[in-house]
Design brief:
Layout (H helix, E strand, L loop, with lengths): L4 E3 L17 H13 L3 E2 H8 L7 H14 L2 E6 L2 E6 L3 H17 L3 H11 L4 H9 L2
Antiparallel strand pairs: 1-3, 2-4, 3-4
Length: 136
Amino acid sequence: MVKNIMTCVEKQEDFFMDQFIRLPQAELEIMLIIWKAEGAVSSTYILEKFRTKREWALPTLMTVLTRLVNKGFITCTKEGRNNRYTATSNGDDYKRMFISDILKEMFDGSLEKLMGSLIEAGAITADDAKNAVKNL
């Protein structure tokens, strides 16, 4: 049972309101863990999952979690002596905005240029591109 529920960090901004915020790699890796969990998670849970990628001490993780709260990506609720972290939106919203941002910034909004670059990089084949366009 939850005895004491309170917000851990009061300052929160909605990252969808003004402009898209592209997360640094470490913050993105933490968000991927939280999105995959599909519910409130503890810092211990995140640290356990994160250790396969990085060896961080708990204070380092707590600093990054506070940044994510301040950016509006997660909320923090205190349950007794533990903090629980919840994503403010699902990962699909971030992915859509991230891809849209890349398309605008790197490819002048041109899907053709993006597809050409992906084909050139070997990430997709020309047939994959044709099928994607056909299925739109």
